[in-house]
Amino acid sequence: MVRDLLFVFEIGKTFPFFGLLDANDKIALCSNIAMPLYSLCKNFYSVQQNCDIVCNPSGVLTINIFANTYYNEDPVAMGMGHTLLCKAIEPFRRLKLSTEEFVLIRAIIYSHMVSPGLSDQAQKLLFTEAEKYSSLLMNIVQINYGAAPGALRYVELMGLIEGLFNMGAKHRQLFTYISNVLDPNFDRVMPSVLAKICTKGPVESHQLFPF
């Protein structure tokens, strides 16, 4: 998971607009989109591997790893884990995103202009970027599916993005529950800044962007 979250921040640096954000805006944006992007990538690549539930790159089912820890004795943790690792993949299996759709959905999430804590300047910049990537997505699905069916798929993909933010919130609930109730050492198994992002805690600019 640490690698997946670090990958989120590294990809962010590849967007030209990202370098135009100041440190506080980068923190506000990344803190809000990290878990939705984590959910997007895990579910998309699991479907690419023809898995019915979330799996890791080697094909091992993540729920089995989760169940083989002492968390399996806690019905709350296992219930939340089942929702995120088994049920959340269903819209991805139904929609079967193309690589182009995945890349543009990821770009739209990176330009999420309503992230709490963003400055007015950052919101305006991200709004312009979100419009650009949304228009590209609409164009691609209409080319691939036709005008009306493409517009319908665009609506479905926008709904998927909303669902990803809900998934991100559920991931934070799970990690907050684990860190506060089950495992007080949770923030020691990964860099503290990532543990804080997983549980929606505050982070400092030098922790996320040391260079």
Overview of the structural elements:
With 211 residues, the protein is an all-alpha fold. Helix content is 70%, strand content 0%. It is built from 10 helices and no strands. The longest helix is centred in the C-terminal third of the chain and has 36 residues, at 147-182. Mean pLDDT is 83; it is low at 201-211.
Secondary structure tally, helices: 10
Strand proportion: under 5%
Tell me how many strands there are: 0
One letter per element, helices H and strands E, the order comes to HHHHHHHHHH
Low-confidence stretches: 201-211
State the end-to-end CA separation: 22 Å
Oligomeric form: single chain
Shape by Cα distribution: globular
Mean pLDDT: 83
Helix content class: 55-70%
Main sheet attributes: strand count, strand direction, barrel closure:
none
Structural class: mainly alpha
Using only C-alpha atoms, the radius of gyration works out to 18 Å
Family: Belongs to the nuclear hormone receptor family.
Organism: Heterodera trifolii
InterPro entries: NHR-like_dom_sf, Nucl_hrmn_rcpt_lig-bd
Protein name: NR LBD domain-containing protein
